[in-house]
Amino acid sequence: MLPRATVLALLVLPILSTAAPAQRNLPDPSYTVVNNTGQTLEMLFASPVGSHDWGHDRLGSEPVPSGSSRLVRLDPRDGCRYDLRAVFRDGTVQDMRGADTCATRMFRLGPPAVPPEPRLDLRNTGRQPIIAAYVSSFGARDWGVDQLDVHPLRPGGSLRLVLPPGECRYDVKVLYADQATEERRGLDLCAHSAVRFP
Question: Which residues share a beta bridge with 195?
């Protein structure tokens, strides 16, 4: 007959061996914090949603200067949804509630990014004046109104047109003095505003 301690070890060992692989299959809630605030991030807290305690400072004694980032390691057993609190050198506090750190792997602190503004720098590099220019959202059926408004764009000339925000992809059509037309479709005017015709 086996000793009682051996029997107990044989019963517990399968339970322990299945717990470790289950923990390895949990999603990793660790994330990177990027400090773009213009001031030093002194403390960072991450507590599971619903917890009444912020827990310990995740930065320890290593603040994050502005323009720097830091990986914040979290225990997968606590899940993916956290309340985050950043405390800056001047005492300012920024909270982010209910953050899914498994889905969002990077959190940027600082002013919100400004979306790019589409614009068109139309340049006439040909020999004919451009007498009309049309700009429409990519794939639209209607070209809309003439953007030159009866002021031709002479050879060698350029004109900046500010377009409605929100869209970046546009179709552009020009009409030359000799009634010939030319089109460019699907232009990303947020990334590249200079468009030359011909």
Answer: 122
Boundary (domain end) residue, out of 84, 109, 134: 109
135 with 127: CB under 8 angstroms? no
Cα 92 from Cα 39, distance rounded (Å) = 10
**pLDDT of 144 strictly over 70:** yes
**Residues spanned by the domain of 123:** 119-197
Cβ atoms of 143 and 136 closer than 8 Å = yes
Q: What is the mean pLDDT of residues 83-107?
A: 92
pLDDT at residue 172 above 80? yes
Q: 88 near 40, Cβ under 8 Å?
A: yes
Task: Give the closest residue to 82 by CA, choosing from 112, 53, 118.
Answer: 53
77 in helix, strand or coil?
helix
Q: Which two tokens mark 138?
A: 């990519």
Mean pLDDT within 150-176:
86
Q: Are residues 72 and 135 in the same domain?
A: no
CA distance 57 to 98: 18
Tell me how far apart the alpha carbons of residues 124 and 158 are, in angstroms, rounded to a whole number: 6
pLDDT for 116 beyond 50:
yes
Q: Which amino acid is at 137?
A: S
Query: Model's pTM, two decimal places?
Result: 0.48
Sheet of 93-100: strands edge to edge? 41-48, 81-88, 93-100
